[in-house]
Amino acid sequence: MIRENSGVSILEVMVVIAIIVIISAIAVPSYIGWLPKYRLSTSARDVLSDLEFARGAAVKENASVVFEFDTANNVYTVWVDNGALGNRDNWNRDGDERSIRSRQMPPDINISTVSFPNDRVRFNGNGFPETEPDPPAALGGGTITLTNETGTWVVELRTGGKARIQ
To answer: Are strands 120-123 and 64-70 parallel, antiparallel or unpaired?
Structure first.
């Protein structure tokens, strides 16, 4: 038997739209509340990943790689301290010493504390972290604390060069 009036009625369309609106009203607020937590955990994982990257770059290039934090601007930079202008391993970015990574934290994430002297650490050619100031640099680890309104995450760099999130 063939139906002459096949299709969807306006009432059926309105019911489907009402169901979609109700589900959206429930889901969107929880999604919005989840975003700051996600940004904080992602930022901590980025710092961890970049510490491991800096360590690997130091070993690969057999050179010192400095990981320097700018807590006032929520930025960090990773650069090779390879002796531009004849100043090898002096903890300062001289001449054309190249930056190999730089990252700006999202607007709601703060680099609240860095436990390294002068907010920087470097990896020697063997991949061990060194803290300044006096040569020979002492092997050492430290922590980086990231915060936002949802909480705090701490990234720890151990003396042997292994980084982890606490």
So the answer is: antiparallel
Answer for the pair 64, 81: CB distance below 8 angstroms, yes or no: yes
Residue 117 phi, psi dihedral angles, 5° rounding: -60, 140
User: Which residues, 6+ apart, have CB-to-CB distance to 98 below 8 Å?
Assistant: 79, 80
Whether 130 contacts 66, CB under 8 Å: no
Specify the pTM: 0.76
CA distances from 98 to 26, 74, 101 (A): 49, 20, 9
The structure tokens 């930022």 sit at: 43
CATH number for domain 10-63+106-165, candidates 3.40.1130, 3.55.40, 3.30.470, 3.30.60: 3.55.40
Q: What distances in angstroms separate CA 32 from CA 10, 16, 26, 46, one per listed residue?
A: 33, 24, 11, 22
pLDDT tens digits, 9-47: 889 899 999 999 998 888 777 777 788 899 999 999 999
